[in-house]
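Re-run with default settings, no changes from the original entry. Doing this only to confirm the output is reproducible before filing.
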Amino acid sequence: MSSDASSNRWFEPALFQHLPPEECRELLAAKSVGRVGFNGPDGAQVLPVNYVVHRRSIFFRTAADSALANAMRHSRVAFEIDDIDEFLQSGWSVVAVGDAELVDDPDTLVELWGEQGPKPWAVGLRTQFVRITPIRLTGRRVLQQ
């Protein structure tokens, strides 16, 4: 075994960049599937959800009275999206930390049930909208030099 493990790599070390908040917002708006991290009844959990960004907040749907819906009642959560190329060992990641709440405002619900609302991929009745209002938005990119 080589004393210098990096000498076996066929590429140069990657360049690490922090992404500015505006680019993080653009990347969030361009995707439709992310992961929400929260404290559930059994501890920390991370679940994939379909989402949209509307009025600078992240919205997704879940089943009413589900464990996910119950965990979203005025909770601090993390929401993450990424795009990874494993072969090139490069990609980016955006994390939004914010306050989650169940949506009950009639005007907002009308907007979300329209064309701009999130469309879940999974089967089942998902009538409860959840809003995540980001308070911190961070991102990073790893590129080959």
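Confidence is low (pLDDT under 50) at residues 1-8. The chain has one domain: 22-144.
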